[in-house]
Every structure is written in structure tokens, then in C-alpha cells.
Amino acid sequence: MNTKRAAACAALLLATGGCVSRHWTAPEADGVVYDQRTGRPLPGVEVYRQLGRYQQEGVGSTGLDGRFLIQPERSWKLMMQRTDPGYFGSYVFRKDGYVSVTIPYGVVTGGATSSRPPGMGTQRIELKPER
After folding, report:
1. Has this prediction a pTM greater than 0.70?
2. Where is this region: Disordered (predicted)?
């Protein structure tokens, strides 16, 4: 983008009350995944962040003790004045031989622009064996 075009875009943005800011778009989550049948911690469960219907990204997996920790996500967003940002998605827990579990989340209003990352708290996830 050339300098004149960038200046024109910046002037338009300021004139219409928009701003660019860094927002939390996904919360932190931690917990333990268990085998629903045995009640034992389940290692090697893949954890994905899903945004929309088709977009997924791997964010980690459970350790030998079944524990997981998902870091919050933050990104730069263009916002117009008088709008409250809201971000919605889900965390998906998958392991071969088990039925997947999806946990939805939302980061809305003040949580998206807070200086502290939003959190879901400690989760207890149970995966049901397929058979």
C-alpha cells in the first residue's frame, strides 16, 4: 500500500471513530481428560480450537496424567466505536477410539478488551469409548 493510500485510510478510520486494538479472541482453559468408563486420566488426547464451522487449529494435547493447558489467544482487530467485540468458538477434544467432546466458549463485551486474559476455569472432560 502506498503512503498516500495509507494516510487516506488512517484519516477515514479516525473520522469514523474506528480504532485498532488488541483483543482476547479465545480464553485460557485447563483441566484433566478422563476415560468415562474407567474414570482414569486419558493421555494423548488432541485438543483443537475451532473457529466457525471448518477452521480448526491444534492447540495441544494431554500429558501422561491427562492434564491439558490451553493458552489464551489475542489478536489485533479493527473495531468501530459503539460496538462491543464478541468472539465465539469451541475447544474440541479428540482421541482415536473415543467419541469427541466439544466445549463452546465466548469472549464478549469487556472480556475481549480486558488487560487480563479471559479464562474458562478448570475443566473436567470425559471421553466415552466408541465401543
Report:
1. yes
2. 111-131
Lowest mean pLDDT among 13-17, 22-26, 29-33, 59-63: 13-17
pLDDT of residue 89: 81
Give the range of the structural domain holding residue 52, as residue numbers without chain letter: 20-127
Model pLDDT, residue 44: 97
Query: Does residue 12 belong to any structural domain of this protein?
Result: no
List the CATH number of the domain containing 36. Answer: 2.60.40.1120
Give domain status of residue 15, yes or no: no
How far apart (Å, rounded) are the C-alpha atoms in residues 74 and 45? 24
Quote the number of domains for the chain. 1
